[in-house]
Amino acid sequence: MTATKSDSIDRVAFPPNWRTRIGWILLALYVVYAGSQLGFSAERFSSGLEHGHRFLARMFPPNFGRWELIASGIIESMQIAVISTFFGILLSLPIGLLAARNMTPGWISWPTRGFIALCRSFHPIIVSILFVKAIGFGALAGVMALIVASIGFISKLFAEAIEEISLKQVEAVRATGAGFISTLIMGVQPQVLPRFIGFATYQLDSNLRNSTMVGIVGGGGIGAALFTAYQRFDFDVVLAILIVIVSLIMIAEIVSGWARRVFQ
Amino acid sequence: MTVADNLHRDWRRFSPLQRLSRFGFYLFAIAALVASLRTIDVIPEFLYDAPDQMVDLVSRMWPPDMSYIGPTLKGMIETLHIATLGTIIAIVMALPVGLLAARNVTPNLPLNLFAKFIFVTSRSINSLVWALLFVAVFGPGPLAGTLAIAFRSIGFTGKLFAEALEESNKGSIEALTASGASKLSTLIWGYWPQVRPAFWSIALFRWDINIRESAVLGIVGAGGVGVALDTALNLLYWDQVAVVLIAMFLVVIIAEIVVTTLRARIL
After folding, report:
1. Which residues 147-186 on chain B approach chain A with CB closer than 8 angstroms?
2. Same domain, A43 and A155
3. Domain spanning B67-266: which CATH class is it, in words?
4. A82 has a pLDDT exceeding 70
5. Which chain A residues are Cβ-neighbours of B33 within 8 angstroms?
6. pTM score, two decimals?
7. I want to staple A63 with a disulfide (CB 3.0 to 4.6 A). Which of A236, B81, B135, B167 is the partner?
């Protein structure tokens, strides 16, 4: 990489690019600065290693002793994920349609896009804090928060999918004298369904991941059990819950990969 | 077979197996939904006064307490540092694993699978859980948050980087190998120029996600603007919560604009 000075040939195959090098140096300086701001230091790492050792020792072996609690929490998380995905998709269909610029005039599509951006800009955990305040502790707050997250994600992708469709088929259906709804069902739906199933299964995965977390702020599901066990330093229970969560997410990924293949 | 038989043949878009599996999917989806709706534990009384509670929440939030801008701004700068440094550390860790995962760079199946396993582990554990683990190890503070963001991002960046490597053109790499270039030279002069646009776009994309994620880590004590949010929430100062939420919204929108502009210049 370094350009060696050779006296016979002046040309170098890959001349040094000083702009790039200065960029890398600035990046390195930033890393050092940010590290010092965020409390990176050698002694914290060495004491951390010691803590980490004790932490891991307390985690093993995983304690599945309270499996009833874990099972009921995991089932509630799955319920939250399924219900919020369903209603999220149901609401996203009209919202995505309204946001598609080739389907609706600008005075409808732009405010809708703003609403979608608002739904997407907050992390589901923060949204669920607000819903916990508004409708109290429990699964419903988590469901509402994840519906908001689903709208932010699916409506946006759905609007983009509709904007990319071929209008020829839509015109052909319209030419047969079909009304607006028939045009949607026969002209638009077949073109967007495979991608739409893809988004939906992806969102189900994402909602499942988040539904295991909303419990930390009181939104129901396994997160509450996880956080309680963590605060009581029952790290073996924490590990057991984590194993269950990770296996659930992996199974869900396999199932949704299968669903995407069916609708290819 | 007569002509009339041919005319009345039933034309179908999908094969029986396709229709069966689609039907199975719909059946499964509806069964899951019905089962969930019937058994979920919801207290209906909470729902009745939800509109009142919402109005109450908004009236408590308005007007935002402008004196809380100081702590919010301090937390927000910390969040930006966590997101940026976390992304950088994630990329540094993900690059070697990505090289191991790319089948054309490392033609060794056990190593490929090992790298994929690292990616799956990193992605399956939520950033809040990573934060809990690192808070237990390093104590509360932005250090735990940065490492949580970094470990959570390895899977995403590494997987996409490996895919970009696998899509790279063989021509220039073969040319370099034929000229006697070492493995390292092939990586730097053969693969890197080809994956550079993808690399920067992955890094920017993840940075954008990490800004959102690092804003909540403070709830479990891992630093950033989430700490300011958590303090205000615990004291029920909803007008201060409003300030934090507005700040988060603005930062996320600005980050999205920055990422979109930079990506347009790179690609």
Report:
1. none
2. no
3. mainly alpha
4. yes
5. 82-83, 86
6. 0.81
7. A236
